[in-house]
Amino acid sequence: EAGVTQFPSHSVIEKGQTVTLRCDPISGHDNLYWYRRVMGKEIKFLLHFVKESKQDESGMPNNRFLAERTGGTYSTLKVQPAELEDSGVYFCASSQGSRGSYEQYFGPGTRLTVT
Amino acid sequence: GIQVEQSPPDLILQEGANSTLRCNFSDSVNNLQWFHQNPWGQLINLFYIPSGTKQNGRLSATTVATERYSLLYISSSQTTDSGVYFCAVDRDDKIIFGKGTRLHILP
Questions:
Q1: Residue A42 to chain B, least CA–CA distance (Å)
Q2: Region B51-79: what's the mean pLDDT?
Q3: What is the percentage of chain A residues whose pLDDT exceeds 90?
Q4: Which of A48, B5, B19, B101 is 20 to 30 A from A81, alpha carbon to alpha carbon?
């Protein structure tokens, strides 16, 4: 069974440009989470989808970040316009259930570098 | 690859008791974090602690990197502390999670 995949693995963009990250969860997983690690700091929760609905987006840093999950399958995270402090690694995870008892499977991450 | 083992897998305590959760890892790592999984499954960061000791209220954590383990202490536990606690390590952007400790605090 394929795990969580993320694309691209690495993106280098200039300040002010737009970048879209994609996450494909494990098939059948209704729950999809986005996390990020800003350079040298801890991993932090960004938001949580249950199917196509946003369950919680309290971790989104500001309105330059937009996440979607049309159709409840893959998800995209768009950063527009990107700023230098957005550099870091963005992780996606999926799980079968969301009541705290299901293991989350993490993707390999997308390393975003804003110059 | 790096192995992360958490112990105990399950822990049941009475409210007010203290608890210690352990995380062992098999190789040197760049970072270590402790998370609490909330009822909605979200992993909430508790400590980012590649080494040393940190405290936040009733919680504290200690990582001894040279001996490859970390401890999470919860003092005067409350029912709201119940849930699953995960330890995660990373090296070279690969995150490896332990299987977690499920903590039940009884009223």
A1: 6
A2: 96
A3: 63
A4: A48
Q: Does B97 touch chain A (CB under 8 A)?
A: yes
Inform me whether the pLDDT recorded for A64 exceeds 70. yes
Q: What's the CA dihedral at A70, A9, B4, A105 to 10 degrees?
A: 10
Geometric angle at alpha carbon B51, from B47 and B57, rounded to 5°: 35
- First and final CA of chain B: distance in angstroms? 40
Could you tell me which residues are beta bridge partners of residue A79?
A: A19, A65
Work out the minimum CA distance from A11 to partner chain B, whole angstroms: 15
A43: nearest Cα among B93, B80, B11: B93
Q: Is there a contact between B41 and A98 if contact means CB atoms under 8 Å apart?
A: yes
Contacts of B42 in chain A (CB under 8 A): 33, 45, 48, 56
- Greater confidence (B94 vs A111) lies with A111
pLDDT at residue B3 is higher than 70? yes
Encoded tokens for A37: 């690690």
pLDDT band (50, 70, 90) for residue B91: confident
Average pLDDT, chain A: 89
* Geometric angle at alpha carbon B12, from B10 and B13, rounded to 5°: 145
- Could you tell me if B38 lies within 8 Å of chain A, comparing CB atoms? yes
